Amino acid sequence: MQHLIFLKRALWPVFILLLISGCDDGEPSPAPPSADFEASERDIHIWDVVQFRLVSENSEVDTEWHFEGGSPRYSDENDPEVLYKAPGEYGVTLTVRNEAGETIVEQEKFIVVSEYDNHYGSLTDTRDGQTYKVAIIAGQHIMAGNLNFDDGKAVLYDNDPENGEVHGRLYTWEMAMEACPPDWRLPTRSEYALIREYLGGEYVAGGKMKLPGTDHWEEPNEWATNSSGFSAPGSGMYQPGHLEFYSLGESTTYWTMTETDYDAAWSMVLMTRNGRMAIQNTTSKELWFSVRCIKD
Predict the structure, then answer these.
(1) Are 269 and 251 in contact (CB under 8 A)?
(2) Smallest Cα–Cα separation from 104: which of 156, 170, 8, 35?
(3) What is the pLDDT of residues 207-248, one digit of tens each?
(4) Cβ neighbours of residue 149 under 8 Å, at least 6 residues apart?
(5) Which domain holds residue 182?
(6) Residue 192 forms part of a structural domain
(7) Are residues 254 and 148 in the same domain?
């Protein structure tokens, strides 16, 4: 009998707990936050920027993004912008947290990045009516042909008018700074550097900018594909009183508007013997090079 009384007393606290729990108001425990995301675009080209947007019914949440192949690779913003520089298929992972827990959303091969397109347009120079192709490279509108504007001082290679049709004219730096059509100008060193990075770096970008074959370049014209649409011929250069006209088909040099500290200016060089895109800073302003104009 005493054992029975003891058992009843031992069970009494359990009974009280069950009674209390039975009187619960019925509210469920908080659930982890809802989560999903959207993207402004999913099929893009290299160097395109994608705007991501968090979709959640919960206003107070902490977010953590992981962007495979993107820049930035990680973000804690709700609606981050992400740059993609290399072709491929890339996944996105979103983690959303609050005091009730976390939710993870993962999408494989969510962003598809393709190589660049040439995006050809055209520019008509109102000063003389000449029309040039325009390529969009790294988001920049740049002429896809050498400037052939006669400012009264620029020269044609070998003084031959037929060379102007492909190679345009050759200008000193001072002439080049004034030669572009209205609303266009010489590229800066940084703008050519951006194009170089966009096309894969110094030792491959040049091949993607040169016209292929040997119609406008001497052999071997290494790695030339013109996949960027820049369409560079080997236009040579001019140095009065020294070598005169030289290097036709072997190299081409383009002025930039960026000066150096030594009465020189930066220039961009392409060569037949390799796929390099060189940007150099020891170029005398008195040399005569080709010009490409970029939209201001």
Answers:
(1) yes
(2) 35
(3) 999 999 999 999 999 999 898 999 999 999 999 987 799 999
(4) 125, 127, 128, 130, 169, 179, 181
(5) 121-295
(6) yes
(7) yes
